[in-house]
Amino acid sequence: MPDDARTRRRTGTGLGVLLALVSAAMLLTALPDRDREGGGTCAARTVRSWSVDARRTDAFARYGDDAGRADDWTGGDGTHSVRLPDGRLLWLFSDTYLGQVYAPPNPVGESYAWRDASTPLVRNAAVVMSRDGRLLSTLPAPLFPDPAPQQWRWPVAARVEPRSPGSGEQVLRVLLWTRSTGPAPWIYGVPAATEVATLSLPALRLEGITTVLDQRPVRDASRRVLFGTAAVDADGWTYVFGGDDGRAVGRRASRAYVARVPSGRLGEPEAWEYWDGTAWTVRGRPAPVLGNGRSTGVGSAFSVVRDGGTYVLFTMAAGAAGLTTVTSYWACAPTGPWHGPARGFRPPLPRGEVAAYNPQAHPELDGGGRIVLSYDVNWLDATGGAAQTNLSRNVSLYRPRFVTLRLGAPS
To answer: How many whole angstroms separate alpha carbon 363 and alpha carbon 351?
Structure first.
């Protein structure tokens, strides 16, 4: 055989192998991911489009500005929600302003509604919304009392459950983050424990609080894990997501963790299991399922939803973009592997030195086939009283804002 013929044959073979490898890689990329726990499959999901949800944003603005109320919510963050059996929606907030709001101009002549700087700030509150979407009233606040001096409780995810397994009576279980005051960099408190509160239904009276996971024995406070930023029900389990405070000590992103509880048993600490990196364990140390502390990871508060068989996680982006940009990850199982981060989007922010944080999905709301997502806004400088001063002179800064998202396959 002539040399040029052998060369053509070798070249053709090489190109064939290369094309086969490329085709295989494309096929593997296109195939659904495989659930590391049970062999299930799912499809990649990302945010395909989003739009401002002015109707819901304006509803909280009107409620907060209502001068007819002197002891109701006028602003807060945290912004979790849960649908009650009678159709009402309960909104749970962390740090909350109560009291009176005054019409503009504010004391320095700006055209903002404002509150007096001495207005009380409570550590948590709950606002009741009617079945048809009207904000009705604020429960006596704080709803969850401080466990001790210099400690407080922030409510996160909540679920309606049987009072006990098999019971026909229902109660509301609310996951709580317990924090305590500490020196810099812990300006938002040192993580202490995850708790579960039980409230009666329909009266919403607090009946008791149980500690689920005490993190005070963990010496490195930045590695303490608080659970409850999101909860997803699937296959007889409630998967409860949590995070550490790695970002507080200068890391570019915190890490995400997951626990699971048999459906209806959030209030039983012995029923909780934690993912340790290879298996579910009752007493083992939780291992992160997402986050390398640099280019991937989460804010300390994030949200997870299930779209078909796919879990989608929403968080502020790592690095400087995390002050303005919401990004997402997806997985076929709560334990991962998580894929991303996807290209983010920048929801609108008011003027000034402000930052967005705590993106929270609200599956209880009808988004017309879309996901309703809230995000909180705060003054960027939280030191020296600057935040409280600016949040008082412009009350619109410290209230939830809403967008609606449409998910789909990555383009």
So the answer is: 29
13 falls within a domain: no
CA gap 384, 184 in Å, rounded: 12
pLDDT of residue 220: 93
Judged by average pLDDT, the poorest of 8-22, 227-241, 295-309, 318-332 is 8-22
Q: How would residue 291 be classed by pLDDT, with cut points 50, 70 and 90?
A: very high
The DSSP secondary structure of 226-261, one letter per residue, reads: EEEEEEEEETTEEEEEEE--GGGGT-S-B-EEEEEE
Q: Is 248 exposed, middle or buried (0-12, 13-18, 19+ CB in 10 A)?
A: buried
Ramachandran quadrant class, 291 (left: phi over 0; alpha: psi -120 to 50; beta: rest): left
Q: In what order do the strands lie in the sheet with 310-316?
A: 303-307, 310-316, 326-331
Q: How many domains are there within the chain?
A: 1
**Three-class DSSP category at 182:** coil
Is residue 33 scored above 50 in pLDDT? no
In sequence order, what are the beta bridge partners of 151?
Answer: 180
Is the per-residue pLDDT at 320 higher than 80? no
Cα separation, 171 vs 86, in Å, equals 12
Q: How far apart are CA 143 and CA 189, in angstroms?
A: 19
Range of the domain at 254: 32-408
Contact (CB, 8 A) for 291 and 256: yes
Model pLDDT, residue 28: 30
In angstroms, the CA 144 to CA 23 distance is 57
pTM of the model: 0.88
Q: How far is CA 249 from the centre of its chain?
A: 20
Residues 90/128, Cβ–Cβ less than 8 Å? yes
Q: What is the CATH number of the domain that holds 72?
A: 2.115.10.20
* Amino acid (one-letter) located at 408: G
The model's confidence at residue 250, banded by pLDDT at 50, 70 and 90, is low
